[in-house]
Design goal:
The complex is a heterodimer of chains A (370) and B (299). By secondary structure, chain A is an all-alpha fold. Chain A is built from 16 helices and no strands. The chains are: A mainly alpha (370), B mainly alpha (299).
């Protein structure tokens, strides 16, 4: 049975070449045929002018069934090969498509973006560091950097603080389950949906008119003048961050709460017997004990805020001084059609993400999964 | 360990209830508003809606869901006309984008995870390390290069284009999570299948896939919420498809632009965009949480 896992030693040069060629072919076969087959299907569908619901149904069956069918067909072909070849090729049926798709959608774009970040507007000429010079000196870009840092610091820390607060409070409450599901619920809502929800909270009417936004209604009821929160620099970035905190605290709560439940009861009891108060227990036992979970949650939200786009785009479109890196990248791409600058911003985001993600993965890799 | 719950006291409960109310009120507000009559929405806050004489209505949903032109009486009593937002069309588009964009990466990732966990081939370790390393690559990096290819290939604005893009962006996490699960399946289970003469393909389809359902489900919920709620990828790769190809998030974004003050319609639209993820989320929360845990909690 040993050679089931360890294919036999490679033979001559010719054999090696054929093997290599066959492997690449199999890796390429499924994505390529999927691609062409599905594409033809869509040209057909698009021109057929069928109603939307029919297109939806056909597209789903086509897309999902097509990929499954390709694996099955490739496998049938491989089963016809002599056993020696089959053993060499089968692994590539399994991993080939994934490797190809990842190569095209993530690996290659990283290299291409890197190259494009040193080229001009339409990538026709080499411009050296001009794009980077631009993104580190332009006024709007500098604002975007500052805002992004505010997002990262406040967004992450507030989500963690509220998540921790919810975890600790619900742990000590009789309505734990209900409270947790209600706080967790916003996780299912899109950033744009949350944008509408909060735009309504922040809605502004001039003084004297009826305030239909909750926040200004409260301000008016307390005798204050209504405020146009969304355009109020520089605080408006913070009002946008509130939306992220509202969305992400539930995530932080769930992870931290289950980590807290893992703190050994004996440890807590010993501390209580020694007369430690709740606050000391929280800060000196629970928090140090769940440090790993805090880092995981923190780094995950940190990356999210580094790439934050939807909230800003939906709420202000980056106006009123709320620009961030990702919204600037989008604008360079679609509004100013400057691929060089857009790519340079993408590279900066990548470089900023790497250390955080590396730290996150290190944390992630230290444990058994599921 | 329910028995070891610390003692609860009144302050804890009051603070918690207060926070829960603050967390819930924003969503509740748009839900109420989406059922109010146009004029009432602009006259009073939703919290005063119980005193509306005219009660609640489904009209906002009719207007937002349909694509036809409708007439209404504006505040000065004149007849006005406006085009519906065809949220139904956007909803179907979102479904068309999301379902294959969830199933395809799961299928491809499960095959790959099995390959990396149980098959031997040259470059296995290197390839796996590269895939895990790709977890750090933000999808922003792929937007410009892939969009340029899509424009040449006329894939911009097609379902196929966005399925493959979402597949590419979701694969590193999918492979990583599924690998961690599939590699812990005891070798003895697989060996008994091989003794019975099963091929790797049969073993994978008949044995490993069914055993991996919990892991597949938790990734599926992740990917579903991610794709359904995504706006950036849809904005970029569906940009060539026109209004007909817009998904709900992009349609909402356009509604914010075009209907800035029509809160009765915006709130109804927002609620339509939230309905499916909320249902999926609430009914499959258990799997979702176990997926989150897989990536987060030291047991």
């Amino acid at each position: 049975m040993g050679d089931l896992y360890f294919p036999d030693k490679p033979g001559g040069a010719l054999q090696r070449t054929v093997t290599a060629f066959g492997r690449i072919f199999i890796s390429f076969f499924i994505p390529a045929v999927t691609f062409v087959g599905l594409w033809l299907g869509f040209l057909f569908l698009r021109d057929s002018g069928a109603s939307q619901i029919i297109i939806t149904l056909v597209a789903i069956v086509w897309g999902v069934g097509g990929v499954a069918a390709l694996y099955i067909i490739t496998n049938i072909i491989l089963q016809r090969l002599p056993i020696k070849w089959r053993k060499r090729f089968v692994p590539f049926l399994f991993v080939g498509p994934a490797v190809m798709i990842l190569g095209y959608y993530l690996l290659l774009p990283t290299l291409r973006s890197f190259l494009m970040s040193f080229m001009g507007k339409f990538s026709e000429e080499f411009v050296g560091f001009a794009n980077y010079k631009y993104i580190f000196s332009d006024r709007t870009m500098r604002l975007a950097f500052v805002n992004n840092i505010v997002w990262m610091v406040l967004g992450t820390s507030l989500s963690l603080i509220f998540g921790m607060l919810f975890a600790l409070l619900s742990e000590r409450s009789k309505i734990e389950k209900l409270a947790k599901s209600l706080i967790f619920l916003p996780m299912a809502i899109s950033f744009v949906g949350a944008g509408v929800i909060w735009k309504f909270i922040y809605a502004y009417r001039p003084s004297g008119e009826a305030q239909i936004g909750l926040l200004n209604a409260i301000v008016a009821a307390l005798g204050g003048d209504p405020v146009n929160w969304i355009v109020l620099r520089p605080w408006n970035t913070i009002f946008l961050i509130v939306i992220l905190v509202w969305l992400q605290s539930g995530y932080a709560m769930v992870i931290l709460s289950s980590a807290i439940k893992g703190v050994p009861v004996t440890l807590l009891e010993a501390a209580r017997i020694d007369g430690a108060g709740e606050f000391r227990i929280i800060f000196q036992i629970i928090i140090p004990y769940i440090k790993g979970a805090i880092i995981t949650v923190g780094t995950t939200i940190l990356i999210l805020t580094l790439k934050i786009f939807d909230i800003v785009f939906a709420m202000t479109n980056g106006l009123f001084g709320t620009e961030v890196l990702a919204s600037q990248q989008y604008k360079q791409m679609f509004k100013f059609l400057h691929y060089g600058r857009g790519s340079a911003i993408a590279i900066v985001i990548l470089i900023a993400v790497i250390p955080v993600m590396w730290y996150n993965l290190k944390q992630f890799g230290n444990r058994e999964v599921f | 360990m329910k028995t070891d719950k610390p003692r609860s006291n009144i302050i804890v409960n009051v603070v918690l209830i207060l926070l829960v109310i603050i967390w819930t009120v924003p969503t509740f507000g748009i839900l109420v508003t989406s059922f109010r009559i146009r004029d009432n929405v602009s006259k009073t806050g939703w919290w005063q809606s119980l005193s509306d004489e005219s009660g609640y209505t489904m009209e906002n949903y009719n207007q937002v869901l349909g694509g036809r032109t409708f007439t209404y009486t504006d505040s000065s009593g004149r007849e006005a006309r406006a085009k519906g937002d065809d949220m139904m069309g956007a909803f179907l588009n979102s479904l068309t984008v999301t379902i294959p964009a969830v199933v395809i990466p799961i299928l491809i990732a499960a095959f790959a995870a099995y390959g990396f966990a149980w098959l031997d081939f040259p470059g296995r370790k290197t390839l796996f390390v590269i895939i895990v390393a790709l977890l750090v690559v933000p999808l922003q990096i792929a937007l410009i290069p892939v969009l340029r290819d899509y424009q040449v290939l006329k894939l911009n604005g097609t379902y196929l284009g966005i399925w493959l893009a979402h597949t590419g962006f979701g694969l590193p996490l999918a492979i990583y999570l599924l690998f961690n699960y599939i590699s812990t399946i005891p070798r003895s289970i697989m060996e008994s299948a091989f003794i019975d003469g099963a091929s790797h393909f049969t073993t994978f389809v008949r044995l490993i896939l069914p055993l991996s359902v919990p892991a597949l489900a938790s990734f599926a919920i992740f990917q579903f919420l991610w794709v359904w709620n995504d706006m950036l990828v849809a904005l970029v790769f569906m940009s060539g498809g026109g209004a007909k190809m817009q998904v709900v998030t992009v349609r909402m974004l356009n509604m914010i632009g075009s209907r800035g003050q029509d809160w009765h319609l915006l709130t109804a639209g927002a609620f339509i965009s939230m309905v499916l993820p909320l249902i999926v989320f609430l009914s499959l929360q258990r799997y979702f949480v176990s997926g989150l845990m897989a990536g987060s909690v030291k047991e």
